[in-house]
Amino acid sequence: MDLGGLWYWLLAGMLIVYVVLDGFDLGAGAVMALVARDERERSLVLRSLGPVWDGNEVWLLAAGGVLVLAFPRVYAAAFSGFYLPLMLVLWLLTFRALAIELHHHLGSTVWLPLFELAFAAASSVLALVLGAALGNVVRGVDADGQGHFFLPLFTDFSARPPLGILDWYTLLAGLTALVALGRHGAFWLNWKTGGPVQARAQGLARGLEPVLIVLALLLTAATAFVQPMALQAMELHPGCMVFPALACAGLWLSHAALKRGAELRAWTGSAFFLAGLLGCAAAGLYPTLLPSVVPGQSLTVANSASADYTLATGLIWWLPAMALAALYFTILYRSLPRKFRD
Amino acid sequence: MSPETLHRFQFAFTITYHYLFPQLSMGLALLIVALKTRERFWGDAEAGKAAEFWTKIFGINFAFGVVTGIPMEFQFGTNWSRFSEAAGGVVGSTLAQEGVFAFILESSFLGLLVYGRKRIGPTLHWFSAVAVCLGAWISGYFITVTNAWMQHPVGSHVAPGGIVLDSLGAVLLNPWELWSYPHVMLGACLTGATVMASVGAYYLLERRHEDQARLYLRLGVGAGLLAGLALAFPTGDGLARTLSQDQPAAFAGMEALFHTQSGAPLAIIGQPDVQRQSLDNPIELPHMLSFLTYRSWGAPVQGLDKIPTGQWPPDIPLLYYAYHMMVGLGTGLIALMGLAALALWTGRLWGQRWLLWLILLAAPFPYIANTCGWLTSETGRQPWIIYGLMRTDQAFSPQVSSGNVLFSLLGFLGLYSLLSLLFLALIGGSLKRGPGSDGHGA
């Protein structure tokens, strides 16, 4: 594998870390209304995220920076091509962050429900949008010879040209993401809270399991239909089967650990499941970063990676930076209380 | 409006608004480290109480910095795709390093600093303050070094597929950064120090929290005076002289020097008239510009007449006013801090209500001066986005139409108006409750 290929996987790795970490914040927000019934319980959910959400979200920025570094053409084409949905993501991220950070600062209880609503709604929509975004990348866009495209928000929902950002396939991906992250968030609350919130989170994680299995199978079948390249890649490189295997193992681990009350292990199983699922997407597309329905116009590692000097010097600082990040996160997560109390 | 105008206006608006928050964060972070250090190693309980109060303000301010900062990284791609595509191999290097070295450090330890006071030991808590400060200052380094490359592109060359990085070392040690980084960071310190002193003056005038107020004033006035002096000399002086060599058009535009002349005067006030190429109603210090630029009273200084009009900064009056407002406000703040320091030294500050009033009212001015500084730097570079290599009108996203940009611009205007109200309510509430009020532990 060349340097560009290596950066493809480093970038995929950073995005997986982002989804595993920020995924539980978003998921906890999406399920808050189901697991927390009164003000005190909702405040408990929010407080369990207070010290960690910012560090989690930053992985999106770090991964974005690495995308600019390694594949500037893809960053330029994708960010301008998905202009409106990205602006909506920015505004939702703003609402979510302010709701978590500031709900306890206003000193008046009148505003609390508003902050909680903003938090729950923004988190749910963000989970859905992130899934739909991944769906768009897997399905592909209609990039021209320069890699330029500009997709409308929706057309006829057919997943065939004329393409739109929302169609049945990307909505299915979004729904799968919402359920997968909601379950991931429930595992966090099961691990880090106690009392009725924990009990309801446990029940919800259990209840979402069959839904998630059905959605994941549907999404796999739909992906084979919408993006045949993905399955071909799996056949071509049997080593990639490690990702579906990881997803299945993660699902089983979370199921078994939940039964035995092993809270951290259940959350870890859910993390493996998410990593496996995203790994499947990365392996199915490799070495393409942004497929195009126009033949020969896909953005790939070969036609969009930065020059070797940029990629090689990047490795020199990237590796120690990741080691430091692992150290900071260990310190942070070890300093959290075993259970947040209200 | 043309797409270019809208793309530029949206970026200018969102970055100007964003930078109101990091300038306080970066300055305040250092002052909080000073307070935490006094608490941890000298056992000063008053400093500990102050650190706790300012950490609360810092936490609110930081959250606004994060939410307004994320759009900046997105907009390089959404609105400036041709710039990102051409220059991503260079600016991606520095932006990615900002992410992995600065943001991750800052945000993980902020969680401990804000929520961990009762949970983690005093040494780890002190270290969290240091780590947050370090993260903020590393972040400042990488973002100003990215800007330094756009002002003075070194360590790279233009190839058919885009701009290729030749030496990461040369980019990270850009001579432009030598003056611009300390100048920007000292500007942030001036904001942090002025705000702290201003809150101290407010409490003294109110006759509440008086011990805390005196501490804020001592620290704020001391740090503010040092930062203000170092902003003028050597960093401001060094940056201006770098500019006179590397960007003569920007330099002449800042001074509204239309004609090359020996023994050029320094304009204090006056209104540039670009059509007639003159400065109206000038009040000038004779020979001063020649002396400041070349350390010689008679040295010739290049005017705009030596530069083809196509390479003039397109908005010379804006550039001129931004620069003069920065210098004027900076000078005023140094004078105020100097006066306050003198009053502190002679033990008379606490009773001088007029001086406390002046300090209270000074709070907005370092923000304006910092904003004007960046405005000078960015409008002076025009018409280039990367000086000498890429023009701004060649850099925006071609497939994003004016209608789409106006949609997002209106969205940002509305959202940021809401954020402003929220910020003022939150900070106002914190100041009203004051230091020592119960925090919120995990």
Note the beta-strand portion of chain B.
5-15%
What integer value in Å does the Rg of chain B equal? Answer: 23 Å
Q: Which oligomeric form is depicted?
A: heterodimer
Number of strands of chain B: 8
Q: What's the name of the CATH homologous superfamily of chain A?
A: Formate dehydrogenase/DMSO reductase domain
Spatial gap, N to C terminus of chain B: 50 Å
Q: What ranges of chain B have pLDDT less than 50 throughout 5 or more consecutive residues?
A: none
* Strand and helix order of chain A: HHHHHHHHHHHEEHH
* Shape call of chain B: globular
The percentage of residues in β strands of chain A lies in under 5%
The CATH top-level class label of chain A? Mainly Alpha
- Assign the CATH topology of chain A: Formate dehydrogenase/DMSO reductase fold
Largest interface (CB within 8 Å) is between: A-B, 69 and 74 residues
**How many distinct helices of chain A?**
13
Biggest sheet of chain A: strands, sense, closure? 2 strands, antiparallel
How would you describe what is shown here?
- The complex is a heterodimer of chains A (342) and B (442).
- Chain A contains 13 helices and two strands, in the order H-H-H-H-H-H-H-H-H-H-H-E-E-H-H.
- By secondary structure, chain A is mostly helical.
- Chain A has one domain: Up-down Bundle (Formate dehydrogenase/DMSO reductase fold).
- Chain A is globular.
- Chain B has 442 residues and is mostly helical.
- In chain B, the strands form four sheets. In chain B, strands 1-2 form a two-stranded antiparallel sheet.
- Chain B is globular.
- The mean pLDDT of chain B is 94.
- At the A-B interface, helix 3, helix 4, helix 5 and helix 13 of A face helix 3, helix 4, strand 2 and helix 14 of B.
